[in-house]
Amino acid sequence: MIKAMNISYEIGDKLYLNITNKCPCNCTFCIRHNGDGAYGSDPLWLEHQPTAEEVIDNIKKRDLDSYKEIIFCGYGEPTCELEILKETAKYIKSVTKTPVRLNTNGLSDLINKRETPAEFKGLVDIISISLNASDAKAYDEVTRPSFKGVNCFEEMLSFAKRVKEFVPEVMLTVVDIIGEEEIKKSQAVADSVGIHLRVREYVD
Ligand code: SF4
């Protein structure tokens, strides 16, 4: 039984924030399938949903100036707890100049049932959105979203385009295991929306 409440954890000179277990996807490559932790950290499954206060209390114990970046990431999709994310980011912005990054599946509007891009303004400096694949069919096969009858690939791209207005740096990402041909096609998709594509190394 996992007992840890690993709300924040360090990898190298970065601090990662793990604010929820929730996610509407079930990606084939998700770290959830690869054991309890991420890159050697302690177990990330949260035994209960932390409140914004708990998250902030947790990071108060850390020297936030000492990190190169503070990243909302973790075991679930951070925008599933958008209010907690925003309150925490607001606190971070009030105490440090360390850049804040959000790693997301880009489905925040579907998850929160409203237009959310403007809500990141002033709170997040970098958004890294999982493109995952070069078209809707391949995307659904890889991410297996729980939203039915919705083109999640188009929703994610639309979010990426709109959030550029409010966040200084937006990037799309794919994992290198998708193969060279898919990476090339994904590059064309990223180019078509004018967003940088980052190819991430798959860590088994
Ligand atoms: S979106 Fe992220 S947390 Fe959710 S299943 Fe995919 S990889 Fe895992």
UniProtKB/TrEMBL annotation:
CDD domains reported for this sequence: Radical_SAM
UniProt KW keywords: 4Fe-4S, Iron, Iron-sulfur, Metal-binding, S-adenosyl-L-methionine
Position of the signal peptide: none
Cofactor: [4Fe-4S] cluster
SUPFAM superfamilies: Radical SAM enzymes
Family matches, as PROSITE patterns: RADICAL_SAM
Official protein name in the record: Radical SAM core domain-containing protein
